[in-house]
Write a structure and sequence with these properties.
Helix content of chain A: 25-40%
EC number (chains A, B): 1.1.2.4
Distance between the termini of chain A: 18 Å
Oligomer: homodimer
Pfam family, one (chains A, B): FAD_binding_4
Family (chains A, B): Belongs to the FAD-binding oxidoreductase/transferase type 4 family.
Largest sheet of chain A: 7 strands, antiparallel
Number of strands of chain A: 18
Number of helices of chain A: 17
Enzyme class (chains A, B): oxidoreductase
CATH topology of the domain at 106-222 in chain A: Uridine Diphospho-n-acetylenolpyruvylglucosamine Reductase, domain 3
InterPro entries (chains A, B): FAD-bd_oxidored_4_C, FAD-bd_PCMH, FAD-bd_PCMH-like_sf, FAD-bd_PCMH_sub2, FAD-linked_Oxase-like_C, Oxid_FAD_bind_N, Vanillyl_alc_oxidase_C-sub2
C-alpha cells in the first residue's frame, strides 16, 4: 500500500484557537515538538501532525473540546500511549489530538464482582500493579504498555487471549463522549445484559471514529493459585502448532501459548539477554490449582514429545516468569533493533487454527525469498501471528517489497476464511483489505459512521475514507 | 406496563399479496390459524396477528421477501420457535411474519476449529444431537428449545453462561439480509479480529430490527471428559449465594450453578416428578478432567457446608443428569402450570453478583405481600434471576399487581447498577425500562436504527417505538 503525501491544509481559524486557549490554558500545546510526538507512528507510516494537542483531565474537558471542535468543523483525534501499529492515531487531516494520558485514575475496584472502572488513560501495567493486592488481575496484554482506552479502541488482545479473550470480552461498559457532545454509558455493570443494541461492542474497535472513550469498566480475573511458565523448542513449526491444536482439543485450558521462529528467538536472545536455542519455540503459561496445573503440564509435555518437541525449560519463580514474558512483550522492539536504524512493519493476520500451519509455512516460504529481514511470532492458540519486518527507511524498494509480501499474506489469510487484522485494528494500513475481507458489510459500517458522525470529524480517514 | 389495543390497520394491498403469491406459492400462508400461531406470545402480551406468514427456505427467499416488503412499505418480522418472553416476535403493526424454522440445515462443522455454521432455524437441541459424535457441544441453553437465529437475535443465554458466556460470546459470524436487501457476512471465521466495527455483536441482540439473520457461525466447546451434577439444599438464600460467590472467588470454573427457591422446587417436583426437599436449592454442574472435577467438588462442598448447605445429591449418570437439567429447563412451565389456566410472566433482572443476595431478599419480601403465586429461579453465577408469576388471565387486577412488583424489581436492580433484562431482550415489555437504564445511549440506538432501517419496517415497535 502506498501513502500519498497529505494535501496542504489551511491553518486553524484564529478564533477557534482563541477559544481553545481560553478553555484549556496550559492543557493546550502548539509546539512543533508536542505536535510531532502526537503525529508519529511506531511503525512505517509517514508522520502527520495535528494542529494542536489538548491534554484532557476529565470527561467534561472532552465534552467541551468536542463542542468547540464540532462548532469549528475541526477534526478531533483521541491519543493514548501512541503505541498502535496501523497508524490509528495519526491526524491525517490535521485537527486537535486529544491526549488522554493524564486521565489515569483507577476509579473503582469491585473485587467481589471481579470488575473495575478506570479512566481511559490508565496503562495496563499500572492497572495490574494496583490490582495486585486485591488477588485479581487484568489479562489483556498487547506488547506495548498501552492505555486501556487505546486498547478498547483497537479491540486489542495479546498473549492471554486464548484463555481470557480480547478487549471484546474484557470490556463490560464504556463512558463515551459522542459526536453531539453527550456523555453516554453504554451498559450497566451486570455481567450480562440483553438491553438493546450492544453499544459497548460497537465502540470497542471503532478507533475513535464514533466518539471518544473516557472511562472503561473491565472484567477482572482471580490471580491463579499456581502459575507455571515454560519454553520448549521444536524440530518443526508443524510440530509446534500441532501440539497446541491437540492440547486445545483435549480441553487443556492453556493460559498463554506463543510461537517464535528461530530468527525471532535470536532477536529476543540478543535484546533480552536470554540464551534460548535458536529454533522454533513455544512459550507456555499454565494457570490453575497446583494439581490442575500439574495435570495440564503432563498432557502438554506428552503431546510435545510426540510432535518433535524438546524438554520443557521451566520458569516457576515470579521473577523468572516476569523476565520471560517481558522478553516476549518486547519481541517487536527486539526484532526491529536487529537492524540498526530500521523501521518496523508488523503484519497481523488471524486464521482458523486448523489453517495456521499452512498459513505460516507458506509465509515462511515467501519470506525465504525476501531481501528484508523478518521474524515470525504469534498467538498460536488464537490462529493469529505477526511477521515483523525491519525496513531500511532510506530504501524505498524495501517498503515496496514488504508491501507486496504483506499483500500476499493477507490474501492467503482471507482465502483461509481469516482476517487481515487479528488485533491491531484497521487504522490507515488495512483499509483496502477490510473491503476485501467483508465486502458489502463495510457499507453498513460507513452508514453507521455517517449516522453518528455526519461531518466526519472523529478520527477522520481511519477504518475507511468516507 | 399497559398495552393499549392496537390501532386498526388497512388490509394488505392486493397487488402486494399477488406478488407474494407469485414468488412464494405454498410457502405463503394466510389462514387465521397460521397467523394466530405467529401472533401469539408465550407470556402475558396480547395477541397481534401478522397479515401473512411466509416460510423461508433459503437466504435468497429472505432477500426476495425483503425486496417485496420494502417496495410495498410492509413490515417484516422474523420468527423462529416463537419462545421469546418479551413479545419480541409479535407483529404489532401487522405485516409479514417470516418463519425461518424450515431453514434448519447444519451447514458445516469444523471440529478442528471448534466452530460450526447453521441456518437460523436450527434448534439448539437438534444441534447438540448432531454434534455429539464430534466430541463437541454448543453450551447456550435458554429454557425453551429455541432456534439459533432467535437466540442470536435476543442475545440469549442460559445455565452454562457462567462458564461459557452468552450468545454475545458464542456467535463468531452472521449472515444477515439487510434492509436494503443485501446479504452480508459480518465477520470471517477467525476466532478474533479487529477488522472495523463489530457488526456481529451489533446484530446479536438487535431482535430483527436491523435485518434478518439467516445463518450463524458458532463457537463450540469440547465435551468435558468428566461431567458431574449435584443438587444441594440450603438453610438460607444468603448461604446459597455466598457459596457461589466464594467458589468463583477461589477460581472454581463452575459450569452451571442455578438457584431455585422453595416454591420453585415444589413446582419442579410436581411437574418433573422429582422428590427434592422443598428448600432453597442450588443445582450444580462441574466440567473437567476427573481429577479436576474432584478438586472443584471438594472445594465447593466445603464452602457449602460452611454456609448452611446440606449434603450434595449426585447425578453422575448421563440419564440422571439429563433428567435433572430437563427439570430445570422446564421450570418456567412447571411454575405456570401450578395454577390451572394461568398465564406466565417472567421477570429478568441481572445485577453485579455482590448485590444479588440483597436483590433477591428484598424481592422475596415484596413477593411475600403479593396475592399472585410466584417462584424464583436464577443463574446465580451471573447475577441473573427470574421471578415467575402465574396470573389469572380473567383478573385484570392481578396483571396490575404483577406490573407494579416488576416495576419495583427493575428499579431495585437499576439502583444496584444492574440491567432490566439479563437475557430475554427488550421486545415490547422492557422499552420504558431500557430508557431508565441507559438514558441518552438509547438515542444512539435510535440513530443506528434510523440509519439502517429508515422506514422502520424491520420488526417495528420493538426495543423502542420510533
Amino acid at each position: 500500500m502506498h501513502h500519498a503525501p497529505l494535501p496542504p491544509r489551511a491553518p486553524l481559524d484564529p478564533a477557534f484557537l482563541e477559544s481553545l486557549k481560553a478553555r484549556f490554558g496550559s492543557q493546550l500545546h502548539l509546539t512543533e515538538a508536542m505536535r510531532e510526538q502526537h503525529g508519529r507512528s511506531e511503525t512505517h507510516f509517514p508522520t502527520a501532525l495535528p494542529d494542536a494537542v489538548v491534554f484532557a483531565r476529565s470527561t467534561e474537558d472532552v465534552v467541551d473540546l468536542v463542542r468547540l471542535c464540532t462548532e469549528a468543523n475541526v477534526p478531533i483525534i483521541p491519543f493514548g500511549a501512541g503505541t498502535s501499529i496501523e497508524g490509528n492515531t495519526l491526524p491525517v487531516r490535521g485537527g486537535v489530538s486529544v491526549d488522554l494520558s493524564e486521565m489515569n485514575a483507577i476509579l473503582t475496584v469491585n473485587a467481589e464482582d471481579f470488575d473495575c472502572t478506570v479512566q481511559a488513560g490508565v496503562r495496563r501495567e499500572e492497572l495490574n500493579l494496583h490490582l495486585r493486592d486485591s488477588g485479581l488481575f487484568f489479562p489483556i496484554d498487547p506488547g506495548a504498555n498501552a492505555t486501556i482506552g487505546g486498547m478498547a479502541s483497537t479491540r486489542a488482545s495479546g498473549t492471554n487471549a486464548v484463555r481470557y479473550g480480547t478487549m471484546r470480552e474484557a470490556v463490560l461498559s464504556l463512558t463515551v463522549v459522542t459526536p453531539d457532545a453527550k456523555v453516554i454509558r453504554t451498559s450497566r455493570r451486570a455481567r450480562k445484559s440483553a438491553a438493546g443494541y450492544d453499544l459497548t461492542r460497537l465502540f470497542v474497535g471503532s478507533e475513535g471514529t464514533l466518539g471518544i472513550i473516557t472511562e472503561v469498566t473491565l472484567r477482572l480475573h482471580p490471580i491463579p493459585e499456581q502459575i507455571s511458565s515454560a519454553v520448549c523448542g521444536f524440530e518443526s513449526l508443524q510440530g509446534a502448532v500441532d501440539t497446541v491444536v491437540q492440547s486445545i482439543q483435549l480441553g487443556v485450558p492453556l493460559a498463554r501459548v506463543e510461537i517464535l521462529d528461530a530468527m525471532q528467538i535470536r532477536a529476543v536472545n540478543r535484546w533480552s539477554k536470554l540464551a534460548l536455542p535458536e529454533v522454533t519455540t513455544l512459550f507456555f503459561e499454565f494457570h490453575g490449582s497446583p494439581a490442575g496445573v500439574a495435570e495440564q503440564i503432563a498432557t502438554v509435555e506428552a503431546l510435545a514429545q510426540g510432535n518433535g518437541g524438546g524438554d520443557f525449560a521451566w520458569s516457576n519463580l515470579a521473577e523468572e516468569r516476569a523476565r520471560l514474558w517481558k522478553a516476549r512483550h518486547e519481541a517487536y522492539y527486539a526484532a526491529v533493533n536487529m537492524r540498526p536504524g530500521a523501521v518496523g512493519w508488523s503484519t497481523d493476520v488471524c486464521v482458523p487454527i486448523s489453517r495456521l500451519p499452512d498459513c505460516i509455512l507458506e509465509t515462511q516460504a515467501d519470506l525465504a525469498k525476501a531481501s528484508v529481514p523478518a521474524t515470525i511470532l504469534g498467538h498460536v492458540g488464537d490462529g493469529n501471528f505477526h511477521v515483523i519486518f525491519s525496513i531500511d527507511p532510506n530504501a524505498p524498494q524495501e517498503m515496496e517489497e514488504v508491501s507486496a509480501i504483506n499483500a500476499r499474506l493477507v490474501e492467503r489469510a482471507l482465502a483461509m476464511d481469516g482476517t487481515c487484522t487479528g488485533e491491531h485494528g484497521v487504522g490507515i494500513g488495512k483499509q483496502e483489505w477490510l473491503v476485501a475481507e467483508l465486502g458489502d458489510a463495510v457499507d453498513i459500517m460507513r452508514t453507521l459512521k455517517r449516522a453518528l458522525d455526519p461531518r466526519d470529524l472523529f478520527n477522520p480517514g481511519k477504518i475507511f475514507a468516507l
